[in-house]
Structures are given as C-alpha cells and as structure tokens.
Design goal:
The chain has five helices and no strands. It is an all-alpha fold. Helix 2 crosses helix 5 and helix 3 packs antiparallel against helix 4. It is elongated. The two termini are 31 Å apart.
Length: 151
C-alpha cells in the first residue's frame, strides 16, 4: 500500500511539474519572437515526453499487478525462499540459486507467461532491473496472446 501511495504522490508531482513547464512554454510562444517561439516549442516537448512515459509506466505496473493477482488466485506466486542478511537484504548467492531454477523453468516452458512472471521476480531479486522489466513485458505479452522476441 505504501508503494501505491508513493507512486500516486510522485505521479501527481510530475503532472504538476509538466503543467508548470507547459505553461512556461506557452508563455514563450505568446511572446511571438522567432527565438522565443522556437524555445517555447522545444520546452513543450518535455511535458509531452514525460506524460507519455508516465502513462506507459502506469500501464506496465497495472498489467504486472493484474498478472500477480491472477497468479496468486491460481496459487502460483513464487514463495519467498531467499535467505537474507541480518540487515534484511537478500543474500546474493541465494538470489542466484533461485534465479537458476526460474531460468530453467522458463527455458522448459518458453510460452508460459507464468514462468516468465516468476523469472521477472527472480531477476528483480537478483537486482537486475532491466532484465526483470523485459521478462515482465514478455509475461504480459504472452498473457495477452501477443508474439514477442526472446529476452
């Protein structure tokens, strides 16, 4: 729940910032000189890109959460079998062991979104965020019936 609240607050701050930047861009355009119009148009690109990125990120999180809920209802969510350090951090060797099992599971069933979901969790636990995101995108695409390239 705390993560959702943080996400909503961050998104709201970003939308406010994009609105502020957009208004400055419009003010520059209203000035009417060729230089300020050019700068104003350039400034307006930033909020558009930012809003697009925020929208795509929000869609990704929503879809990943939907898959997690579906997998939980099936009883297929991966159990937390990781060892932790006294400070609570995941032990790297433990994460690597679980990752090896999840990778083998995914190689055995490359068209199963559930195995890709669990692999994404293993990548995340191993602190490999880019690959975790790609694996989750693959799980989402397989769940939705879309054909994707191999990660």
């Amino acid at each position: 729940m705390r993560a959702k609240i943080s996400y909503v607050i961050t998104a709201a701050v970003l939308v406010f910032y994009f609105a502020l930047v957009g208004s400055r861009g419009l003010m520059l355009i209203e000035t009417g000189t060729p230089l300020t119009v050019t700068f104003g148009l350039a400034v307006l690109v930033l909020p558009v890109i930012g809003l697009w990125f925020l929208w795509k990120s929000t869609q990704f999180v929503r879809r990943a959460n939907q898959l997690a809920a579906e997998l939980d209802a099936e009883g297929g969510l991966p159990a937390d079998e990781l060892r932790r350090t006294p400070s609570g951090r995941i032990d790297r060797d433990s994460a690597d062991e679980v990752f090896a099992r999840r990778k083998a599971e995914t190689e055995a069933a490359p068209d199963d979104w559930r195995s890709w979901f669990r692999l994404a969790v293993a990548y995340h636990d191993a602190r490999d965020t880019p690959r975790a995101r790609k694996a989750m995108q693959r799980a989402i695409a397989l769940h939705d019936g879309k054909r994707t390239e191999t990660v």
